[in-house]
């Protein structure tokens, strides 16, 4: 692949961890720094917090920005992992909508100042109900709707558009979309920061142990992402060499 030098990031070794740093960590670092702009002492929610980008968002919100961090996940095992990387609380979202809302109220009675949103669907809808005054939601994905194809579909009865916008106005809050390639001018600066934190040990990379080999396994690797079983960065080896 030929790419402009201005869009390449030099790395010290071909360690698979740098794959996570150059894409997943950059998504978290730039989205937080340029869009969400967390402040020390704020309460932050990270959905899919055990995933490739969510796990970096947790660590940065806690260790760089000094926030109280709440992460969502789909199992108690993942919850323990979230606590180990910096979450103060975790929410298992595999419950009813009412239970999910009650748990969010419990951990953030005044709402979330920052919401790093990767899931979409009901989780996104309940999260926006709990956005704080002057809160900022950054939408970087919608994995709950990727397999069905309706991740970005909306109708007149869609809860987020029918009710979420009203809540945003009432709380003087904001929702922003985020796509990493539009931030090439600042990516090198953020990469140097995250690389230094990784090499010093203040940011960790978890590579999911479910490792596949061969380009013919790409579809299988993507399907694995949608099972909800992965946490950390899913890596595909091109060959055994």
From TrEMBL:
Pfam families: ADH_zinc_N (PF00107). One of its GO terms (cellular component) is mitochondrion. Residues 52-155 form the Alcohol dehydrogenase-like C-terminal domain. PROSITE patterns: QOR_ZETA_CRYSTAL. InterPro entries: ADH-like_C, NAD(P)-bd_dom_sf, Quin_OxRdtase/zeta-crystal_CS, Zn-ADH-like_protein. The keyword Oxidoreductase applies. Coiled coil: none annotated. GO terms for molecular function: oxidoreductase activity; zinc ion binding. Keywords: Oxidoreductase. The keyword Oxidoreductase applies. This is Zinc-binding dehydrogenase, putative. It comes from Angomonas deanei.
